[in-house]
């Protein structure tokens, strides 16, 4: 049941793979805030699905694993841990984004200003608001680590480095 305090957010869906401006925007209603903790859908590290036993050459799946996965993330222990949704958060893991994750982020934020904090949020699984709420010492350590993994095409200086 929706109340008068329902939150609606725009969701943009691309209509064309060639024209990034060709999008359909819909407004969806979010569930009540009381349900947000139960609907926490931060993903755990994905495990590739096993290849079906009957998969032949025409059904081949492309599944890969990075050779050195530990080089793609860094865990920052917090000097000032905090509690989130009743759980203690004592560390923040920052990870590199894949090409697909960067494309998805750009598609989701099409037409909106994308800040470094929005990108850091994608890299940590925490919201930009939670990251801004970290103690300055912890926040600096997390954002420094995140900047090391910042997607090159999203760096503000990427255009000037091509000259």
| Parts with pLDDT < 50 across at least 5 consecutive residues | 45-62, 158-163
In one word, what is the shape?
globular
Determine the fraction of residues in helical runs and give it as a percent range. Answer: 25-40%
Strand order of the largest sheet: 1-2
- Helix/strand/pairing category: alpha+beta
Treating each run of at least 4 consecutive H or I residues as one helix, how many helices? 5
Q: What is the average per-residue confidence, as pLDDT, rounded to a whole number?
A: 77
Largest sheet report: 2 strands, antiparallel
SSE order, one letter for each helix or strand: EEEEHHHHH
Radius of gyration: 19 Å
In angstroms, what separates the terminal alpha carbons?
56 Å
Report the count of strand segments.
Answer: 4
What fraction of the residues are assigned to beta strands by DSSP? 15-25%
Task: Name the features.
21% strand, 25% helix, disordered C terminus, alpha+beta, 163 residues, two-stranded antiparallel sheet, Phage_tail_E/E, Mu-like prophage FluMu protein, single chain, 5 helices
Q: What can be said about this structure in brief?
A:
The chain has 163 residues and is of the alpha+beta class.
Describe the structure.
The protein has 163 residues and is α+β, with helices and mostly antiparallel strands. It has a domain at 71-154. 25% of the residues lie in helices and 21% in strands. The strands form 2 sheets. It has a two-stranded antiparallel sheet. It starts with 7 loop residues before the first strand and ends with a helix. It holds the Pfam family Phage_TAC_7.
């Amino acid at each position: 049941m929706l109340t008068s305090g329902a939150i609606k957010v725009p969701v943009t869906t691309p209509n064309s793979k060639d024209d990034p401006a060709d999008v359909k925007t819909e407004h969806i209603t979010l569930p009540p805030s009381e349900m947000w903790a139960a609907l926490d859908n931060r993903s755990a590290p994905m495990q590739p699905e096993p290849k079906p036993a009957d998969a032949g050459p025409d059904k081949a799946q492309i599944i890969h694993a990075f050779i050195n996965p530990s080089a793609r993330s860094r865990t920052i222990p917090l000097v000032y841990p905090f509690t989130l949704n009743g759980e203690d958060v004592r560390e923040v893991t920052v990870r590199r984004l894949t090409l697909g994750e960067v494309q998805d982020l750009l598609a989701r934020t099409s037409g909106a200003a994308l800040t470094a904090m929005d990108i850091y949020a994608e890299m940590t699984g925490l919201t930009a608001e939670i990251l801004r709420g970290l103690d300055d010492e912890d926040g600096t350590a997390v954002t420094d680590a995140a900047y090391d993994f910042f997607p090159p095409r999203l760096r503000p200086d990427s255009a000037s480095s091509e000259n």
